[in-house]
Amino acid sequence: MRHPDVVVVGTGFSGIGAAIRLKQQGFDDFVVLERAHDVGGTWRDNTYPGCTCDVPSHLYSFSFEPNPRWSHSFSRQGEIWEYLRTCARRHGVMPHIRFGHELVSAAWDDELDRWRIETTGGHFTARVLVTGVGALSEPSVPSIPGIETFRGTVFHSASWNHDHDLAGERVAVIGTGASAIQFVPEIQPRVGRLLLFQRTPPWVVPRRDRRLRAFEQRLYRVAPAVQRLARLGIYWGREAMFVGFGIDTRLQRGPERMARRHLRRQVPDRTLRKKLTPDYTIGCKRILLSNDYYPALAQPNVEVITDRIQEVREHSIVTADSVEHEIDTIIFGTGFHVTDMPAAKRLRGRGGVLLADAWRDGMGAYRGTTIAGFPNLFMLVGPNTGLAHTSLVFMIECQIAYVMDCLRYMRRSRVATVEVKPEVQARYCDDVHARMQRTVWVTGGCVSWYLDAAGRNTTLWPNFTWRFRQLTRRFDPQSYLVNAGARDREAVAA
What does the alpha-carbon distance between residue 393 and residue 115 come to, in Å, rounded to a whole number? Predict the structure, then answer.
């Protein structure tokens, strides 16, 4: 058993960012647990055709590690993955990573004031546990009657089967989210027949993407301040979008007109266009960016099916209108476990309380980061830290800054444990949910993956991101139960 001071879980933006900041702050006694055999998280795992970020490249990166070599204004999956690998190598994080170590469970030990951590690669204890598993780490596959009887090929977009040849096949795509609108145009020319099973049409707007020219890359390399200025401009442009999302939803009429115009231009067929026209306020579900999704659906080998799937048979899918559709391959583009994150079933706080049980009535965390009853646990990309308009990396950096300030406080004050007060967390969560009621995500008239089973939005941040930065700029010990009775490190190791 090993006894590092800090254990970080995951090597996506959250885990790599936390590890870099730990080293920069002089906290060298830490390990990073990674279930796979390379860093990258979501950007390592999602390799489906056409996988691209929908946040501009200059903003979807660490503020302290600009990349002048982005090839496009919106980065491709492979580039983002390589960016994370480069960050890990450049900042000396790789020696701290334990690959092939999937978190099995973590339980707080009241006697030791430490976390007991079990992984597939061994056991650890740690004074501090930082989870950076992210919300898009566990694919969600809907339970469809008969799916286990299907004799063709089945896979999720997040686990793309590159060995399977789709050429000439009858392919069913279930789901019309951010992944599907990217891979559908890529596979459409190769398949024999593509059936898109759509529950709710998304709002789609043009992707303003372009290749970054060589002189721009050179300029960013020799004059980093220019790239920082470009990033700042993108940030404030994206930040302004929140006004329509959360201040005055009437302002969403402009983006909605643009989306309708985009649909009319790309889908001349009125019957198909009607199927693809949403009946809810734009922004209620994630707004998607694409220039080739609609043209792909207008091709003669594609059919958009809006009838509910009733069952799956050995070689077909039957819809509620009793029509049987012959299928060779099923691809799920159905997203991830977000409001029921699997990590909650692996973490136990004081008294052995499972986080999933503590969250039985809905996820909640103080400043999206700390949870009452779970000492020295810091959750990056926790409840109500997601975004629908700008870069999640910004929120991650805010949370990491908060954690680092807390660790400095603990070191300076010789504090063993910090645990957010229940009443402080309750007030914070009540304020977040009160503010959420005014947003398009609640008033927009749709059902989305932002909402949990009770219809509460425990996913998104209902305010400007600069406000979140204000809240997380300094650790606030007055909001926490603080225990100064630290255990001797040698006693713990014994």
Answer: 27
Secondary structure element (H or E) that encloses residue 109, with its range: strand 103-109
Residues 286-296: what's their mean pLDDT? Answer: 97
* Burial class of 167 by CB neighbour count within 10 A (0 to 12, 13 to 18, 19+): exposed
Q: How far apart are the first and last CA of the chain?
A: 10
CB 173 within 8 A of CB 184: yes
194 DSSP assignment: E
**Pairing relation of β-strands 316-319 and 309-313?**
antiparallel
Q: How confident is the model at residue 488 (pLDDT cuts 50, 70, 90)?
A: very low
Cα 449–Cα 452–Cα 453 angle in degrees, nearest 5: 120
pLDDT for 146-161, tens place per residue? 999 999 999 999 999 9
| Whole-structure pTM value | 0.95
CB 402 within 8 A of CB 367: yes
For residue 165, is pLDDT > 80? Answer: yes
Write b or e for each residue in 440-458: b if 16 or more Cβ atoms lie within 10 A of its Cβ, otherwise e.
bbbebebebbbbbeeebbb
Q: For 347-383, what is the HEC assignment?
A: EECHHHCEHHHHCCCCCCCECCCECCCCCCEEECCCC
Domains and CATH numbers, the chain: 6-138+337-493 (3.50.50.60), 147-208+241-332 (3.50.50.60)
